[in-house]
Amino acid sequence: MKNLAAFVKARRKEVNLTQEEFAGRTGVALTVIRKIEQGKTNLNMDSVNLVLSMFGHALAPVNSKELEQ
Known about the structure:
Number of helices: 5
Radius of gyration: 13 Å
Shape: elongated
Number of domains: 1
Largest sheet: none
Structural class: mainly alpha
Helix content: 55-70%
């Protein structure tokens, strides 16, 4: 989760948005942005994907066998 936190925070700052402005643009609550940037682990995947979609990314379940290939 720390990689996700660092990625979102860095990208948000690159586009020069406050957490509040970013929350408004992504359509999620400010608390969601704060939780992501703090590296919290109990996040809703749909909310995280709304945030990541701003940067052309998404999270999805991965089969461990796929990672071995």
